[in-house]
Amino acid sequence: MRLLVVEDDISIQQFLKRALTEAGYLVDAASTAKAGETMALEGIHDAFIIDLGLPDLDGLDLIARCRSQGSSVPVLILSARRSVDERVKGLEQGGDDYLTKPFALPELLARLRNLLRRSAVPHNESVRLQAADLQLDLVRREARRGDHLLQLTPQEFALLEYLCRNEGRVVTRTMILDHVWKMRIDPATNVVDVHIYRLRSKVDHEAQRPLIHTIRGVGYVLKYA
Amino acid sequence: MPENLHATAAWRISIWTTLAFALGTAVAFSIVYFLVAQGLRERSDTWLSGEADVLAQVSADTPRDHLYQRIVREVAELATQEVPDERNARGERLNSVFFLATDPNNSEGPLWVGPSSEDAFVTTIQRSKLVPGAPQSITVEGLRETFRVVVKAQNGRTVYLGLSDRGAKRMLHRLARRFLMVWGGMFLLGFLISYWSARRTLLRVERITETVARIGTEDLEERLPEPVNSDEISRLAKTFNRMLDRLQSSVNQLRTVTGGIAHDLKSPVTLIRGTLESALCNEGNEKWRDSVGEAVEELDRLLQLLNTTLDLAEAEAGALHMDRGPVDFSDVVRQLVDIYHPAMAERHHEVTSDLEAHVVVDADLLLLNRVVSNLFENELTHLPMGCRVSIRLHLHEGSAELLIEDNGPGFPPDIGSRAFERFVKGKHSPGHGLGLAFVDAVVQAHGGVARISDRAGGGAVITLLLPVSVLQAA
User: Fold this and answer.
1) Interface predicted TM-score of the whole assembly (ipTM), two decimals
2) Would you say residue B34 lies in a domain?
3) For residue B296, which residues of chain A lie inside 8 Å, CB to CB?
4) Structural domain harbouring B305
């Protein structure tokens, strides 16, 4: 997978390049819209990551120019603006996505994966998820740890399903709220943590090895450690 | 058309002008009526005096023979024929005139020409003790009209000539009736014209009000149309436009400044956060993991403070980017109750919610989510363990009313009504004092009201009122 990052802030560009390379992507970078456009039109990238505040052209105009020249590569927009204007929301409906700065790295990676998956051939949704000895039946909404049937509320099941789908990857509190409850809020209190504690007490209770781990300052990860 | 006609300025203005107009014309008419009545009386008095002189002369000059009565009667009857309106529509005589001549020396008794009810007239005349000279008024028993009577005495004979005021009365009556008809017409026409012109003028003011109200809540780009002529209302529109220009430029300035701050601060923070985060996601180095985690958490708190401060500045200046549409408020509250319920239960709060289904408001979904979550955060941070929290949502007089009630300690008395101001918070409150200020600013930007009050029996009540969407009203 090859990505193009168009970002004028060199330090952020370098940081993104490093982080994305570590995550296993090939990364090209440009600092201006002009250079970005030239590289984008080579047609060798699977996704673009474009900052809105470019020195020579607005990021949205750059996207429009790429689109008008036939490029249909999915775009992840980075914005320092807090309230995202309607044009960006419009893009979101068109299949692209946006992220406001500062973002958590796991969220950037998750959104990127999502974009790349959307552009790929849709694969069959499985009805079962499995992580170590945890099994989820998505049709009957049942979860088992080993032979033990877990008594979960619908919410807890949705939360566990989300963690399970991201097995081994860190998810942030914001991502959890966005995916499980479809809420883009930023609570200062421990609301999400309480949900996780409760879920963990059911999933990891009596188990030899815990599945749900807290990464302090970042979020949570489900993995068999 | 306004819902309540009586409350409009156009209605009041036209009522007052019409009343003044009606009063003026009524006074003018009264003067005319009085002058006409006086003129009529003068005319009839002149006629009476002249005729009485002639009749007295005739009666004095005619010898007292057997022809005397006949001659005088004929002269008198001739005189009565000069009177206008003497015959009614069917041609019958109305006997508006009477003539009486008395002569104490004459054995034939008084001479009478006039209505058949002679006795009534004679008694009245005798009782009235009329004096010769100027005309006087008498009222005859059994007849409605009054008579003007002139008395002439000559050679020992007394002559009485009377004229009924019936003709004058009828003429005045006709005049009054016509006037009333015209007056009524003028009244109605005057009212319609003044209402129409006042309404036309005030509709322009109304349009300005509507446009300014819309501009105030939605789009600062819009301007009022400025008519070419320069009357008071056009000047009002121009003044508003100048004001909007200044407002827009300061809002734009604010957006530039907040955008600049956001951008300049966020890039380095993104970088710091990202670097720390990649370190945290790597295995090993358990020794400093906690310190780094703490640093990231503090960074997040700093960002939250920064974001809320900037949002608040924009919201209070009316510069928030809002993307409003119909939003199921019930759904929003239910979702957030779901999210916050476990955290509340963790603090042993007993949460009850009573939410009316499908209360639709016209709002920005993301902002509304944040408003309601801020309120729940507020409950979570400020209540001591084991309180009761009741969340209710229902339609109330065309508004969506959200009530969050608790039996906690309530707002500290020194905060009271200032709870919605920036950085106002209790001494022991862990928050930054921006949450409720943000709630208030966003609710106001949506045309709603946020209120706090003390709950009867201790605790606090937070009330949000948001106008319901037209979809709900339909």
Assistant:
1) 0.77
2) yes
3) 216-218
4) 232-316
